[in-house]
């Protein structure tokens, strides 16, 4: 109330709504006028408009007598555009750039809240605007100059003879018949940018007459900005309550959203997506992404999405494959549609795609030729199916694009069971349609290896080494069992007989002191084995709880030799990688080797430090998913070569940051070592 008293009403003004120029009044916004052009004195040579597009072109004369006008440049532009000859088609007939064309663009899509106001004798008259257009200079004359330049170059190359012209008249014509256009193809064509541009170009220009500011016709038209009658019947729109009046001046933004142009079919607006119901949001997302983990789907739907509702909706439009959701075939290929490649109806496409999805529920790999042989579809359709949910791998086939989602499978076992029942029904239908054989129903495990016997991958080599380890340990177990039986037959204690076991050293360490090496990552070495011995064997009584002195020395020598040779080859290793290499080394040793006595993590790490290596405390990010053994990094500090100093500088750099740019490394090496290294030397140090 105090503020209202300090700000009293000085004058009340009557507001009137003028309707004479309704849907005819436009506001033109001109650019900043140059010094050589004054719009008050300039002559408008021509004007034209496209009413549907609200597009205007104005042609204005430039004051060439203005002292700020550069005459030489105007002559040069006219010469470039029209050349030396002048005729009716010339843009600048005076051989001087004496006019400028302005083209318009819409400044606002919704102008219903804007009006032109005229104040006269204590009355304010408002006329709603039909459009707001911004005028910008048009440089189409430059395109014309380029065309003239290309014509002159073509003419300078020399014209063809009459015989050549006669030969050019005879041309071979290729006749092509277009396929019948489907409804989906027609909609895509109508929404394309090229089609919209073509429709805009087809609208004819309507030429206008320009009248100056002081012309009598202009003065007559300006009178229409005033309300013709002051009666209540003329201004019923303005007799409103304050809230209704404000609503008229500032309408809700929903009207603008309804008038926004539709985005292309391949563009997904998350702002528009959030306004749809949950089921439609999930359907649109799955149709665009095609394969998605459930966690990603929840993140796209927003933090307020209900997990139960999302699960209920996603099962209507997608199927579970390897813990991930894949969009259903009938969503991608609705009824009454056909393949754009072969014209096959949607029902056949859905069966073929369901077969591909079912194959991925059985195995991570699918062979394209096998799918084509079963479904009898063209290669393009089969490739589309596979690209929806998999990635091509050279010499292997098509691999499912996402890893197996164990988290979802563990959290929602009821959903997984329901999806398995659905897949059993789909499998029964596919068996009837395609007459599937047993070889199609069971995943092929060893075919990839037998098909390419010459190409042995690293994983296959590890599996072979694991098999060899099992065989060696089986022989070792038989020997120990035989020796154990002999010891039981003797009257003496088993403890005194243990050192007589040939080539076998048994170690039993208390768990509280040192944990045995973790080999759980290697399945072949985790079959009841602890550090190279079966748990039953590890229970043998040690000699006073320790290994004999000679056995300890031999184990240390063998372990030191392995660590030294390994780090001289690779220089930098994580504890996880070192343990993996050590297990492979054990697999290559004969039964009864001293290293089978059991090597703990602490023993291995101590031996690494004793051989001249150092632990590099790399500052990995806290959110890393690496295991603790992968975060322990060891490096050979001195190898005895010429790059020891460079290697030490590089290791110190990585002890401060886990990610460093190459130019920073090169400059730091040059600064610390006092010499400029070339690219090959830096590459060798980094390698």
UniProtKB/TrEMBL annotation:
**Residues annotated as region Disordered?**
146-169
Q: Name one GO biological process term.
A: tRNA transcription by RNA polymerase III
Example GO CC term: the record gives: RNA polymerase III complex
All residue ranges annotated as the DNA-directed RNA polymerase III subunit RPC5 C-terminal domain in the record:
444-687
Question: What span is annotated as the signal peptide, if there is one?
Answer: none
Among InterPro entries, the record links this protein to:
RNA_pol_III_Rpc5 (IPR006886), RPC5_C (IPR045576)
Q: Where is the composition biased (Basic and acidic residues)?
A: 146-155
Q: Which PANTHER family match?
A: DNA-DIRECTED RNA POLYMERASE III SUBUNIT RPC5 (PTHR12069:SF0), DNA-DIRECTED RNA POLYMERASES III 80 KDA POLYPEPTIDE RNA POLYMERASE III SUBUNIT 5 (PTHR12069)
Q: What is this protein called?
A: RPC5 polymerase
- Source lineage: Eukaryota, Metazoa, Chordata, Craniata, Vertebrata
Q: Which gene encodes it?
A: Polr3e
